[in-house]
């Protein structure tokens, strides 16, 4: 049974961080939670693709794309791979593409917006580092809870 982020916040209060960025829902899975894996990259999705090719084991990938809407970091092909590999969701502080197709994939996908432009494929980025956006410190290994009301994150290891 899924407990809504509003109910979780009512129960745990300030023990949870609440993300203030107003993400849009793109995936078919509107609510998800899981342990966080992080990635910091800018308009380059090669590392994102390689991470989502790994077994997800119910994890969620939090991608700090610097808020750039210039190029999509995630599209339907990579999202389909993530769903097939058992990822719960992907949060992109940036853009996605193939939004109609994303809506049919059983994966949580949140992003700031969309852009049909492809990203670079240079493999630039940093994995498993703390990233900050929307007033939240996303640590690898913390737990994320996401639904239509927003995003909550535990402190590390909770």
Structure description:
The structure is a single chain. The chain is α/β, with parallel strands linked by helices and 158 residues long. The protein has one domain: Glucose Oxidase, domain 1, CATH 3.50.30.40. Helix content is 18%, strand content 35%. The protein is built from 4 helices and 12 strands. Strands 1, 2, 3, 4, 5, 6, 7, 8, 11 and 12 form a 10-stranded mixed beta sheet that branches. A hairpin with a 2-residue loop joins β9 and β10.
Structure summarized in a few sentences:
Belongs to the class II aldolase/RraA-like family. With 158 residues, the protein is of the alpha/beta class.
Helices and strands in order, then pairings?
Layout: H1 5-12, E1 16-18, E2 24-25, E3 32-40, H2 46-52, E4 60-64, E5 72-74, H3 76-84, E6 89-96, H4 99-102, E7 108-114, E8 126-127, E9 131-133, E10 136-138, E11 143-147, E12 150-154
Parallel strand pairs: 3-4, 4-6, 5-6, 6-7
Antiparallel strand pairs: 1-12, 2-7, 3-8, 3-11, 9-10, 11-12
Subunit structure: Homotrimer.
GO molecular function, one term: metal ion binding
Binding site for Mg(2+): 98
